[in-house]
Write a structure and sequence with these properties.
The chain is an alpha/beta fold and 337 residues long. Helices cover 44% and strands 19% of the residues. The protein is globular. The chain binds 5'-O-[(R)-(carboxyoxy)(hydroxy)phosphoryl]adenosine and zinc ion (ZN). 5'-O-[(R)-(carboxyoxy)(hydroxy)phosphoryl]adenosine binds next to helix 4 and helix 5. The site of 5'-O-[(R)-(carboxyoxy)(hydroxy)phosphoryl]adenosine has 19 residues, from helix 4 and helix 5.
């Protein structure tokens, strides 16, 4: 018997990356990401410019992704899109495009939660985690410890009460005069520095919650004080400052992840989201795997930062369950899950 494969076109436009992917039966055929350089000039994402760039990018990105996947429009079985959370203007572009496309092709629409998709990025490649699976999701807007009982059955155990881990990286970079997004640059300099050269206090939050705003203030006051003594302090100590701040962020993240894994007795542990591209965090996870006997899961770089493949992966599981969205659905900037 010939069973027809399920082809899903997925769109991700929650922030400043326009991405589209095509998945066949949960396997990524093509995943394309158009990054928006315009924000570098402003030291952060400018929401209005992000929306306009999405409008310009979305049609060519989808055309190329379909071509790369070798799929004709008429063979698409569902169109998925990021419904929340994110910048509302950016989300609207993806949502309107997805709705129009689904309607034109007369196929179902699938709404995906961006944070759930970051977790399900672990199911794109082998080896896939077994359940229960504990995932630390660290991005520019979120820091969460998520307990997954099944692909679509997951809950947030703890999260940041203020800044996200990615923001802690980006704001540190900004204070050091580095361009946006600063996280990858802090990572680069940190690899050449001494992580114990400068000490920063770590916040202690109850349960599995995090707080990074105190660290941001500590770095600010530290730099102000040092620059009074030596105007070239930052230039002379860039590697050590980056290594020390990165060490503190990673320690705060790993302490809570270890606490959760130990208390819930979970051995399948992973990281997801843009900050999981960080080399120090990836190494800390590998070390923790050896020390605590964890099965460690880290997605490929391209599936750590925002991408439509993870939206498509989530949509695949939703498709199998028949979880389709109504055409009246709207995107929302914030959404609990
Ligand atoms: O998941 P993501 O691509 O977008 C959001 O949903 O926010 O995450 C972007 C965040 C930014 O804060 C960026 O600086 C950070 O991930 N990031 C990194 C690294 N690569 C990306 N932070 C630290 N080290 C990296 N190598
Ligand atoms: Zn993200």
């Amino acid at each position: 018997m010939n069973i027809k494969p399920i082809n899903i076109l997925a769109i991700e436009s929650s922030c400043d990356d326009t991405s589209a992917a095509v998945l066949r039966d949960g396997v990524v055929l093509s995943n394309l990401i158009a990054t928006q350089k315009v924000h570098e000039l402003y030291g952060g994402v400018v929401p209005e410019m992000a929306s306009r760039a999405h409008i310009q990018n979305i049609v060519p990105v989808v055309d190329v992704v379909l071509k790369n996947a070798g799929i004709d429009k008429k063979d698409i079985d569902a169109v998925a899109f990021t419904q929340a959370p994110g910048l509302i203007g950016s989300l609207l572009v993806g949502a309107c495009f997805a709705k129009g496309y689904a309607q034109a092709l007369n196929v179902p629409l699938i709404a995906v939660h961006h944070m759930q998709a970051h977790v399900l990025a672990h199911f794109i490649d082998e080896p896939k985690p077994e359940f229960p699976f504990l995932c630390l999701t660290v991005s520019g807007g979120h820091t969460q410890i998520v307990l997954c009982r099944d692909h679509l059955d997951m809950g947030v155990l703890g999260e940041t009460i203020d800044d996200a881990a990615g923001e802690a990286f980006d704001k540190t970079a900004k204070m050091l005069g580095l361009p946006y997004p600063g996280g990858p640059l802090v990572d680069k300099y940190a690899q050449l520095g001494d992580p114990l050269k400068f000490q920063f206090t770590m916040s202690s939050m109850p349960g599995y919650d995090f707080s990074f705003s105190g660290l941001k203030t500590a770095v600010l006051y530290f730099l102000q004080a040092q620059k009074k003594l030596d105007v070239d302090f930052v230039t002379k100590n860039m590697n050590d400052i980056c290594a020390s701040v990165q060490y503190t962020i990673i320690k705060m993240l790993m302490n809570k992840l270890h606490k959760a894994a130990k208390e819930l007795n979970i051995k399948n542990v992973g990281i997801a989201g843009g900050v999981s591209a960080n080399s120090g965090l990836r190494k800390a996870m590998q070390d923790a795997g050896v020390e605590y006997g964890w099965n460690v899961f880290i997605p490929k770089f391209e599936y750590c930062t925002d991408n439509a493949a993870m939206i498509g992966m989530t949509a695949h599981y939703k498709y199998l369950r028949g979880e389709f969205a109504d055409m009246s659905i709207s995107p929302t900037a914030r959404a609990a899950w």
